[in-house]
Amino acid sequence: MEMPIPSEMVLSRKSDIVARLRAVLSDDAIISEPSQTQAYECDALTAYRCAPMAVVLPRNTQQVSDVLRICFELNVPVVPRGSGTSLAGGALPTADSVVLGVARMNGVLETNYDDRYIRVQSGRTNLSVTGAVEQNDFFYAPDPSSQLACAIAGNVAMNSGGAHCLKYGVTTNNLLGVTMVMMNGEIVEIGGAHLDAAGLDLLGVICGSEGQLGVVTEATLRILHKPEGARPVLIGFDSNEVAGACVSDIIKAGVLPVAIEFMDRPCIEAVEDFAKAGYPDAEAVLIIEVEGSEAEIAEQLEKITAIAKQHNPIELRESKSSEESAAIWAGRKAAFGAMGRISDYMCLDGTIPVSELPLVLRRIGELSKQYGLKVANVFHAGDGNMHPLILFNANKPGDLELCESMGAEILKLCVEVGGCLTGEHGVGVEKRDLMMTQYNAADIETQLHVKDVFDPAWLLNAAKVFPLSTTKSRRAS
Amino acid sequence: MTPKDEQELAQYVKDAGANGRKLRIRGGGTRLALGNAVSYDDMVSMDGFSGVSLYEPGALTLVAGAGTPLREITETLRKSGQQLPFEPMDHCALLSSTGEPTIGGVVACNISGPRRIQAGACRDSLIGVRFVNGQGDVIKNGGRVMKNVTGYDLVKLMAGSFGSLGILTEVAFKVLPIPETQTTITLHEVDLDVAVQAMSSALGSPFDVTGAAHLPALENTPSKTLLRIEGFAKSVKYRADKLAAKLSRFGEVSQSYDDHDIWTDIQNVTRLSGTIDAIWRVSVKPSDAPQFCETLAKNCPNAAVQLDWGGGLIWARVPNDFDLRQCLNVAGHATLIRGDGFAAFQPQPSVLAKVEQNLRQKFDPVGILNTGIMG
């Protein structure tokens, strides 16, 4: 994968740049020894690595502003980093960059139950946002799989989703406001505890901009009261098509579960070997979760099982206890770990219209045969957000490249049937060069204009999201 | 001018740019009074972009031309038991306008209604747009799937940009089932501060409230605080009973079933529409609403208000020459919806104002699209 050639100008001034940064930070907040910067050479997309020139770990918005102002003045590229859990290489450094990590900014600034929001520093982890309010029976809804580790900063940058977003929406639907530092060091407040911000919806375009428009240091997030209870049902089918049709029928019947998860046979088998969740011997398994009081759960499950039965399931297992609920979810939650145990894998997250599910799964099966690489599918079926896991051997020369080509074929297929390249992981460097399959030159140019406005010098995370050829002239200037 | 397709519209915009002719974009014409006065040479009608082009009930998605009458979309969805989740208000009563509101107008002004408190605003349901920018380029962003983080989210940026960044030609939505039934819980004759506390208590409960409004006493009508619960019948009854019990500590409570009219009146702000006074829309943190309303009442004894979104949205009717922003002593902002005595939108801090101005300049370099509408 191509990355821009590091600027000799910047690298030759390293000691001066580091000295300037050191003047505005405490000694333990700047890392510039190569043996130590190496710890920041990659995120969760481990196939690509490059240690940065330096790493800064500020403690507050003012320090972030100081750092950015210095980098702006000295024309130094900056790569913002949350917890480094990006699957798309969103936090991959360049050799001439300063990585700006927000991990030390993890405080809770305000909780307000009357107005139902929490204000946190952006380095706080997703799960610990809920942790800060759960004693009052509240929670923060977006729940990416990495929620134990991933930071709100990264969630905002990637507009992260999760298993429960069919009902609660993704990050952008739960974000009320941010404090953001522009590349030139200016601090801005966008939105706040009130529902609608004035003027253009800048918050909407900042969320999901992959750290290219500014560094978000604080976020106001909507919190909700927990439902009284939740219960899953597991349904096994003897074909992917039937499982897909069942999902569609449930939605058409007016039932809106909080989650509809889909696993295909290769995934079920790997999960069974690993987690022994007791899943049936089926071609496809759906886990459908509903929420509410006992009576409400019963009412919804009654409707769901009635629909499922019309599709002749080979197994229909309604949870009767919290232990059974945990067992049903155990397999799904272990899916990635189970895959990681048997092989290296690449996880894609293209989204497709739900109606195209059978076709896409069939085509993925064909591609799997053609490339000689196994694929397991586990995904959020209610919203069409696929997660094909392509298995490969990182130690076998050429296997990664083969896997990447096959991944590209799958993502092109997602776009062809009316979907998109990425539903929740982001473009990063991983899908950067596929952008032109979804957007034409004018579409891309319009997005570049937005970056031109926020970061005219193109210093913030500039080698991401867009094909390098489309941004070269801007980065050079 | 009524372009029949994107190509014709794009050429028309190119020519207008070359000739320095400013354009005013018109959907159904029911919301033309929103925003600041627009200086223009030609009116562009979106009537040619009418019709639902894709609707998949099983995928909860609908795609339509921007000129499609809202009524047609509502009817199409209703046949499959679905709806636009955000309950867009109709401005005809408030603005004394006539015509058929279009979906493009709803998106351009990011119009939402009472359910916004639970289901999000128009911008939250919008998943894709096509538009023609000020240079006559056809641009797409987002698509027809409800989870999409591919590139920047210009879908949100276009929603509520009042046609100042581009002319919307097509819009795509995530839709939701129409609830089987609804119950309204009414809290009778409580003061505004108690009403806001009661609404906060309801919205902070696990009972999934989809509407929370307060109508203060007006003329001979006593005050009412209304909370809406929607869903399947058994579930609605359970939650409504629980919520009614929870709210009884605030005052006298009653329940009514399927009282859609009262929510339509709240949605369309019918109770404040009857005069020629100015109408403002104020967005604040709900718990700040009582303080603001008290200040407003002190400074403007004739003011009439209505609270929606649990207190987070205040509609206020005041005399035309009264500057309501002078009373806004809490965080938030005020938009002048009816009247022309003041700027329609709250001035932004200078850094953000500059960002907005630069974005407009990039999307519409010559400055021909709804020029001046957002200031």
UniProtKB/TrEMBL annotation, chain A:
PROSITE patterns, sorted: FAD_PCMH (PS51387)
Gene Ontology MF terms in the entry: FAD binding; oxidoreductase activity
Domain FAD-binding PCMH-type stretches: 48-226
Cofactor: FAD
Annotated InterPro entries: FAD-bd_oxidored_4_C (IPR004113), FAD-bd_PCMH (IPR016166), FAD-bd_PCMH-like_sf (IPR036318), FAD-bd_PCMH_sub2 (IPR016169), FAD-linked_Oxase-like_C (IPR016164), FAD-linked_OxidoTrans_Type4 (IPR051914), Oxid_FAD_bind_N (IPR006094), Vanillyl_alc_oxidase_C-sub2 (IPR016171)
Keywords recorded for this protein, A-Z: FAD, Flavoprotein, Oxidoreductase
Name of the protein: Glycolate oxidase subunit GlcD
Species whose genome carries this gene: Paramylibacter kogurei
TrEMBL record, chain B:
Family matches, as SUPFAM superfamilies: FAD-binding/transporter-associated domain-like, FAD-linked oxidases, C-terminal domain
Keyword Flavoprotein included in the entry's annotation: yes
GO MF annotation list: catalytic activity; FAD binding
Organism for this UniProt entry: Paramylibacter kogurei
One Pfam family named in its UniProt record: FAD_binding_4
Name the UniProt record assigns to this protein: 2-hydroxy-acid oxidase
UniProt KW keywords: FAD, Flavoprotein
Transmembrane region(s): none
Xref: Gene3D superfamilies: 3.30.465.10
Source taxon at top rank: Bacteria
FAD-binding PCMH-type domain mapped to chain residues: 1-178
Record's keyword annotation contains Zinc-finger: no
